[in-house]
Amino acid sequence: MKLSANFVSSRRSPRNGFSLVELVLSLAVLLVLTSLAIPVIVRSLQSYQLNSSAAQLAGMLKFTKFDAIRQNTKVSCQIAQSGGNWLVWVDSNGNLAVDGAEPEMVISGTTTLLPAASVPSPNPIIAALGPGASALPWMVLSGANTSITYDQRGVLNYVGSATIYALYLGNASDPSSGYRAIIMLPSGAVQVWASSSSGNWWRVS
To answer: Which of these, 178, 165, 146, 10, lies nearest to 81 by C-alpha position?
Structure first.
């Protein structure tokens, strides 16, 4: 028995493409998934940038400490506003200017240095540092031009009594990604703390 050419063609040729309804439904699902994913991706990117800036800033302070020990003299980490950004550098030669051989970083974009009034209370950090540290004065240096100096022993060089210094990082217009705090103890130790927008601080490093 022979099959006609028309019959064979109709059985073997698949239906090509999608219908308009299928295409519209696929696009609708894609748009819904995209709208759900974009805020998560943006928040993750902001959190990554915040963590990166905090780690870099802590690294600059640690380098300042070790540079002071290496040179057996006082060395300062300078922080200065430059337009909408913050410039941080290790002033190894003490000339208050950025030189090519000195480590430097720029804090820019959504992450910036914040004053004390813009972040949650640091009381959980102070309590976690223990009775000895909680009895010391607390000074927030971020939000204004400043310098942090280490002496030849690698300890903080401060005017007056021993003081705990703090630098805060965050997004001033969007607190959803949280905050970071760089804590400098009089001994020269540098700690990094993180907080959600609600203020539950925990130590990162």
So the answer is: 146
